[in-house]
# Entry
Amino acid sequence: QVHVVESGGGLVQAGGSLRLSCAASGGTFSTYGTGWFRQAPGKEREFVAAINKSGTRTDYGDSVKGRFTISRDNAKSTTYLQMNSLKTEDTALYYCAIRDNYGLGYRASAYDYWGQGTQVTVSS
# Structure
C-alpha cells in the first residue's frame, strides 16, 4: 500500500506562483508513474500533468501547458508541481496520484493511489 500526501497549496493572487509537493511512502517510488489532477466545485476531476518513473517524459493538460511544470526526485520519493502565472480558473483541490506503471497516465482510472488533496485558491 502506498501512502500519498500533498502539500504546498494556499491562497495566491492571480499571476503568482505556487509549488505543490507530493510525498509517497510504502512502495518503490522509482517504479511508479505519477500525476496531478484537480477538481473545482461542481466540476469533474481534470487531468493536470503526468510524469513517467524516470522523469524523462512529461505531459500536461491543455489549460496548464506553458505555465505548470511537473518534476520528481526519486531519491526523496517526491513529485512536484510548479505552477506559474496562476489564474483564477486554476482554483481547485489538487490531487496527487500514483500508478503502479512506469508510463504516463491521463485518466484518473489509470492511477492506483491518491492523496487527500491540497487546496489552491487564486484571487483576482
